[in-house]
């Protein structure tokens, strides 16, 4: 399942800081951060639940807010 989060992982230094924690839980091809996007979108492909992924990012010292999807997300996101 693909999960996406708005984060404060906004530069190469931040990616360097979060990488060890992410590598404990995911392979390199399972996650990426788009630091060019205004919301610094973290995308993770995993069988873990969204709240589990969110907690992993928080434990690494960063914010992670699930991206709202669909019409509801467009109206209230």
TrEMBL record:
Name assigned to this protein: Copper chaperone
């Amino acid at each position: 399942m693909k999960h996406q989060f708005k984060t404060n992982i906004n530069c190469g230094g931040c990616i360097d800081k979060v990488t060890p924690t992410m590598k404990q839980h995911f392979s390199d091809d399972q996650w990426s951060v788009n630091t060019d996007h205004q919301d610094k979108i973290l995308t993770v492909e995993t069988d873990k639940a969204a709240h589990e992924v969110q907690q992993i990012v928080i434990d690494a010292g960063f914010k992670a807010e699930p991206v709202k999807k669909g019409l509801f997300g467009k109206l209230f996101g």
